[in-house]
Structure formats: structure tokens, C-alpha cells
Specification:
The chain is an alpha+beta fold. Helices cover 42% and strands 22% of the residues. The chain folds into 2 domains: 5-73 and 165-230, no CATH class; 77-161, no CATH class.
């Protein structure tokens, strides 16, 4: 379901050349491509929050929530930790964008608390964390678990990872850069439906770099139209 990076680059070049706006180098394209991918990715979470808060969440907006969840699901991952001695921590997995939940296998979700809540719990004989009722604090990209004596495990961590860095790799033949679909090339991880959005965002970035307002408006105008159609 990935978006082919060469397809996007060729579409960007075709539109830019049609408008006679100048050449976008592979280096520039890769920079714009990664910026566009991250911007689209981060917008998912903003849109999901907005649509989920609409009163009643009618069928129209429920469909939008489902679509956004489908796009985010591409980046949802899990990590299994077999055992943890008491007081241990779990570092965020590499490339983590957002932590989901911690699960103790067979016991459900482990409760997330802040420091004030943990202090209150530790001062209560009834609420003190234990192996059956563990808690954790999320701070500085580290999860610290509290559950009294013993060994906790296995547990499952769910998280959303960031998109991998994309790269339009190429070889130079004569004076022309030709696409090299080798190990150093990497497609967009976004949902295939985002191909047009990627093209238009990259064009708008290129318009800024080339100081071409027309090219910028082509990209921005298409993106605004897409957003309006989604929210109708």
C-alpha cells in the first residue's frame, strides 16, 4: 500500500516542466518528499482528534474517523517484553512517534499515572502498585514501571512509529540522473491514497525554493480543494 517514490518524482517533474518553472534536483526532491510525508502523517492525528470530538459523530464523520484510523494503522507496531525486574524501565522503541498502551498479558492494560498520582498510591495500603495492579510513568521517552516486589512479565507495548525516511536514489548517466531502484531507494510509507497530496505538497515546497508563486499556488490550491472535499 506504499506510494512509489519514483512515480511521485516523475509527476512533480512533469507538472513543473509543463509550467516551465525550473528543474527540481533529486536532493531537493528528497528534502521536500520527507517534509511532505511527515506533514501529512502528523495531520492524521490532528484530524482524528477534531472529527472524534464532533457531537454525535454521525455516519459521515464516522467514515472519516475510520479512514484516518486505516491510514494510521500502517504505522502501529507492538513490542513484547518477556520480563522486567521491579523498578525497571522501557525506553521508547527506535523511531517512535507516539506510545499507545502497555498490556500485562492476561491482565489487560497497565495504568498510566503521573508522579503526584504515584505518590498518593504509594501512601495507600489499598492502592499501592503490585504485580496484579501495575502502573507506569511516561517521561523523557522512557516508561518506568511500578509494581512492588517480584518480576513483571510478559508485557506488550503498542506504539505508532514515524514514517521511514524516503529516498529517490539515482545514478548519473551522462548528465542525466536516472532512478536506481536498489537497496538505497525507499518509497513513501503513507497510504496509497496520499499520492496526489504528496505531489502537491512537494510542488508547493518547490515553488517556495524556486521563488515561483504560481508553482506554490498549484500545490496549495489542490491541497485546499482536497480538504474541502473531505469535510463536505
Amino acid at each position: 500500500m506504499a506510494v512509489n517514490i519514483d512515480t511521485v518524482y516523475q509527476r512533480v517533474l512533469a507538472i513543473a516542466n509543463k509550467e516551465q518553472r525550473g528543474y527540481i534536483t533529486p536532493q531537493e526532491f528528497n528534502l521536500f518528499a520527507n517534509q511532505a510525508q511527515m506533514e501529512i502523517f502528523e495531520q492524521y492525528f490532528y484530524d482524528l482528534n477534531q472529527f472524534s470530538r464532533i457531537p454525535g459523530n454521525n455516519t459521515e464523520y464516522s467514515d472519516m474517523v475510520d479512514l484516518l484510523e486505516e491510514k494510521i494503522n500502517i504505522f502501529k507496531k507492538t513490542k513484547e517484553i518477556n520480563s522486567l525486574p521491579t523498578g525497571n524501565t522501557i525506553d521508547y522503541p527506535e523511531n517512535t512517534y507516539r506510545i499507545g498502551n502497555l498490556y500485562k498479558v492476561g491482565h489487560g492494560i497497565i495504568t498510566k499515572v503521573n508522579l503526584d498520582q504515584l505518590i498518593l498510591m504509594n501512601n495507600s495500603l489499598i492502592l499501592q502498585p503490585n504485580l496484579d495492579r501495575p502502573v507506569y510513568i511516561d517521561k523523557n521517552k522512557t516508561l518506568t514501571l511500578y509494581y512492588g516486589e517480584g518480576t513483571l512479565g510478559p508485557i506488550i507495548l503498542t506504539f505508532v512509529k514515524k514514517p521511514n525516511t524516503v529516498n529517490w536514489n539515482y545514478t548519473v548517466v551522462g548528465e542525466q540522473a536516472l532512478y536506481d531502484n536498489g537497496v538505497n531507494s525507499r518509497d513513501f510509507e503513507l497510504h496509497e491514497s496520499e499520492e496526489t497530496s504528496l505531489v502537491m505538497k512537494i510542488l508547493s515546497y518547490a515553488g517556495i525554493t524556486l521563488k515561483d508563486n504560481t508553482l506554490y499556488q498549484i500545490g496549495e490550491g489542490s491541497e485546499v480543494k482536497k480538504i474541502q472535499q473531505e469535510k463536505q
